[in-house]
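Narrative of accomplishments. A recurring question from our advisory board has been how the design workflow behaves on a single, concrete structure rather than in aggregate. To address it, we present the structure tokens for one chain from the evaluation set, followed by the sequence designed for it. No filtering or post-editing was applied between the two.
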């Protein structure tokens, strides 16, 4: 089964570029342009391996979306992207167990590499013989 990424980004060109790159790498891609649209895709029947989210979104910011995810028990690894980083934002992101932090503009290759790395780190491990 292909790995799945949810991209939450209101800049259509960036979302499309990232989505195309992820599809080329064999990933299933879902996207949303707002936190509200993303929450609809984060229900238990729509499991994603990684969520990549922008902080500045229309309406609710990315960190608020991450807070909502965590409050309902969603532990999906998340990468936060922003062009407007602050120390308090970074601190709050770390408190919410963000798996990666990318400042815009970023190197697309580095972001893709980090997404793959995060997915590998959070891959369910097969049970070993004799384990319970």
């Amino acid at each position: 089964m292909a790995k799945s990424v949810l991209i939450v980004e209101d800049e259509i060109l960036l979302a499309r570029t990232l989505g195309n790159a992820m599809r080329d790498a064999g990933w299933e891609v879902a996207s949303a342009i707002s936190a509200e649209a993303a929450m609809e895709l984060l229900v238990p029947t729509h499991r994603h391996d990684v969520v990549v989210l922008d902080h500045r979104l229309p309406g609710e910011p990315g960190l608020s979306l991450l807070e909502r995810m965590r409050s309902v028990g969603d532990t999906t690894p998340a990468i936060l992207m922003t062009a407007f980083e602050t120390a308090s934002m970074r601190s709050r992101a770390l408190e919410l167990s963000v798996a990666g932090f990318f400042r815009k503009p970023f190197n697309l290759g580095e972001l893709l590499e980090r997404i793959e790395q995060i997915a590998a780190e959070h891959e369910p491990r097969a049970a070993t013989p004799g384990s319970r």
